[in-house]
Design goal:
3 domains, 13 strands, Heat Shock Protein 90, Beta-Lactamase, 34% helix
Length: 381
């Protein structure tokens, strides 16, 4: 490619000034394909700072603990530098490290163009990564829910009461059978209670909520069951309040923790572990375009989601566990859908990550993106 004369760094500086405020991740590279600048959205999405990567190539071994990119990225940079036409590649994979030693798998479409004075600019359009709840999947059981709740729970109450009365006049062996009837009746009622929640079509009561209070409350409740493995938290203390229904979020997080613990129980690793993280990512949006910058991640080091159900885990009655109801993650999907939020899953043997993206509550002082005391200005709408 023949470039007009000019100073590459001056052109890059001009490009950086133009792309700095864009909500999409934008990365500038020099003529040798090395990092030059990242805009704020790119620093958040890649979990890197310009200062830490300037002068390094995307495949530099010194970056392996923080960023691993697909092999085609250097080739794309070379193609962009040699062509007068922009270069596009869909679903490029980025593995992004964190402080706790974990990895987040992200994908995005990469659009590369050469700069007049040398170098190139890359814009990343984030994909929806992993498995996502189907738009109607979580509501597929609503019509059945009310019918089951009324048609099954009512006679079960009578069966349980009759078994308790019969037990009083039975011998020891027969008492065990009566106790079994009572226990199974209670189990079915509990199942119907779960199914019945799908029939609740009332909107969530959303308000400004500290998401860390929700996570701590759900964690404490789950730990009281006695089935909790070791759990560690890595919170971003500067996160602004989320716009959610607190009780619904506690239920959602409990279901995700229970799902992780059950997966760890199926094939326990040497050190079963659940990690709970929070972060801010201003690039994430709902299908409607609403910003969903507050990120909650729940990760376990279990065996992963079985391939046979990997694409259906948010559907009602789909379970990878023997005798599982298949309602825990379906209810998660319903709560997410009711909030206009997003949840994505990345699973492989040894690591399953659920990433929940939530809206932030409006600042009661009004929308002032440049307020100096705000570490996380409200993303543009």
């Amino acid at each position: 490619m023949t470039a007009p004369p000019g100073n590459g760094h001056d052109d890059a500086a001009a490009a950086a000034a133009g792309f700095a405020g864009l909500p999409l991740p934008v990365v500038l590279f020099d003529a040798q394909g090395r990092f030059l600048r990242l805009n704020e959205a790119a620093e958040r999405w890649l979990n890197l700072s310009t200062r830490s990567v300037r002068g390094l190539s995307p495949g530099d071994p010194s970056l392996f603990a923080r960023l691993r990119v697909a092999a085609e990225v250097p080739a794309l940079l070379a193609a962009a530098a040699a062509s007068e036409e922009p270069v596009h590649r869909r679903r490029v994979t980025f593995q992004i490290g964190d402080r706790a030693g974990g990895w987040t798998l992200r994908r995005g479409a990469v659009h590369l163009s050469a700069l007049p004075g040398g170098g190139s600019v890359a814009a990343i359009v984030p994909d929806g990564d992993g498995v996502e709840p189907p738009r109607r999947g979580a509501r597929a059981a609503i019509g059945m829910a009310e019918m089951l709740a009324h048609e099954i729970k009512n006679p079960l109450a009578g069966i349980r009461g009759a078994a308790q009365l019969l037990r009083q006049g039975l011998g020891p062996e027969d008492r065990d059978l009566a106790d079994l009837i009572v226990a199974e009746s209670r189990r079915i009622v509990a199942l119907m209670d779960q199914v019945e929640r799908f029939g609740d079509t009332s909107p969530p009561r959303r308000g400004a909520v500290n998401i860390h209070d929700v996570l701590d409350r759900a964690r404490r409740i789950f730990e009281l069951t006695g089935r909790a493995p070791r759990m560690v938290s890595d919170y971003d203390p500067s996160l602004p309040p989320a716009l959610v229904d607190a009780d619904a979020m506690v239920q959602l997080v409990q279901n995700l923790l229970r799902n992780a613990a059950e997966a760890l129980g199926r094939a326990p690793p040497p050190d079963p572990l659940i990690r709970i993280r929070t972060a801010y990512d201003g690039t994430v949006r709902a299908d409607t375009g609403e910003p969903l910058p507050l990120q909650v991640e729940i990760e376990d080091n279990g065996p992963g989601i079985p391939d046979a159900i990997a694409d259906q885990i948010f559907e009602p009655f789909v379970s990878g566990r023997e005798n599982g109801t298949g309602l825990g993650l379906a209810l998660v999907g319903k709560i997410v859908t009711d909030h206009g939020a997003r949840i994505r899953v990345d699973s492989q043997p040894g690591r399953t990550l659920f990433r929940l993206s939530l809206p932030r509550a409006p600042d009661p002082r009004g929308p002032h993106p440049h307020r100096p005391d705000s570490r996380h200005p409200e993303p543009p709408r």
